[in-house]
Amino acid sequence: MTTDSHSFGIGIPENWTEYDLHGDTLAERRAEMLRHAPQKETRDAINGAFRSARRIMDGARRRGAVYAAGTTTMYEDGLLMAGLMVFSLTPPAGADFSAKGLAREFSAAGGRRREGTSRTLTTHELPWVGPVGRMSGIEETEIAEGVSSKLVVTHTFVPVPGGGRVLVITCFSPNIPLAEPLYDLFDAITSTFCFGDGEPETVGTAT
Fold first, then answer.
1. Superkingdom, according to UniProt (predicted)?
2. How would you label 24-37 residue by residue, b for 16+ Cβ within 10 Å and e otherwise?
C-alpha cells in the first residue's frame, strides 16, 4: 500500500479479505454468506452486521482511510466480525497531534464517540518501527444519526518518517465478549506493520 511518498505493508490473517473502501467487496461477501444461510435469524444477523460494516467504511473513507481489511465469518456459536483500517492524517496548524491528543478525538467508525467509551493509552513497540502510541478498549460510537455501536478497538499511532503526518492503524470488532483474544489478535496484526515495499508475514488464521 502507498500513502503519498511512503509505502507500507501489514500482514492480515489468512481468512481475512482486503476491502475496497467503497464497499463492493463487502457486498460480494454479504451475498455469498446469504446464499448459505437459509434460517431467517441467521440472515438477519448477517444483514445487520454488513449494514454496520458499510456505515463504518463510509465514515472511515471520509476521515482519510487508505486501507481496509476484515473478516465476517459464521461459526457454530455465532457471527464473528472484525476489521482493520489504516488512516493517513495531517494535523491542522496548532492542533494537538500527539498520540494522546489523537486518541481523545479518534473513533473506529469515524463518528462521534459516546459516553460508553472506555479506553487506555499506552506506549507500544512495533518490531519494524519502534515506540508508538496505542489506545485500546471499548468504544461506543455514533455511526449514523441515532445509531450507535459498541466496538472492541485498538488504535496504534505510527509517525510517518520525515514528515508531519501519522498513520493510525485501527482494529475493531463488535464481538465484545471476545475482547481479550481480539486484543491479542490485533496486537499480532499491528506488529507486522512496516514501512517500505517488503511483504510482511501473514498472521495466523483467526478463530
1. Bacteria
2. ebbeebbeebeeeb
What the chain holds in terms of domains, given with CATH numbers, is 2-195 (3.40.1000)
pLDDT value, residue 111: 47
CA separation for the pair 167, 79 (Å, rounded): 29
In this prediction the pTM is 0.77
The tens digit of pLDDT for each residue in 24-79 reads 777 787 888 888 888 888 888 888 777 777 777 776 666 778 898 988 887 877 78
How many whole angstroms separate alpha carbon 62 and alpha carbon 53?
14
Q: How far apart are CA 126 and CA 168, in angstroms?
A: 13
> First CA to last CA across the chain, in angstroms?
26
What phi, psi does 133 have (nearest 5°)? -90, 145
Residue for grid cell 492480515: 12
CA distance 51 to 164: 35
C-alpha cell at 84: 482493520
